[in-house]
Amino acid sequence: QVQLVESGGGLVQAGGSLRLSCAASRRTFTNYAMGWFRQAPGKEREFVACITGGGGRTTYADSVKGRVTIFRDNAKNTVYLQMNSLKPEDTAVYYCAANPGGTSRYPTLYEYWGQGTQVTVSS
Question: What percent of the chain has pLDDT over 90?
């Protein structure tokens, strides 16, 4: 069992930045690929970024590539999502997820999920 707790969301103006954090309870954190997903009202949950257990490989959605960086600190059992140049269309609830099977763009393959943190970008 892995418990995930996200933090760092909030209200920001377009063009601003936010750093989301996701703290995991599991000591064997490196065994899990981590992903960030988001869900806007009335829309399906969509992939944002993911990172391998060791942090050596990352993947991004085209919609955020160049503006977002995913990274992890395995000593702190935490994965981060640094978001820059935010746009109103980035407004959503952001979720982190853990997958023992490796990175994926597909939310159904992730086994554990956090409760989400709201990001609102005003124009």
Answer: 90
Residue 56: beta bridge partners?
A: none
R_g of the chain, CA atoms, integer Å:
13
Answer positive or negative: Cα dihedral of 18, 21, 91, 60: positive
In the block, which residue shows the tokens 């209200």? Answer: 11
DSSP annotation of 29 reads G
- Beta strands of 1-123 (E only): which ranges? 4-7, 10-13, 18-24, 33-39, 46-51, 58-60, 68-73, 78-83, 92-99, 112-113, 117-122
Return the bridge partners of 70, or none: 81
Mind listing the pLDDT tens digit for each residue in 11-25?
999 999 999 999 999
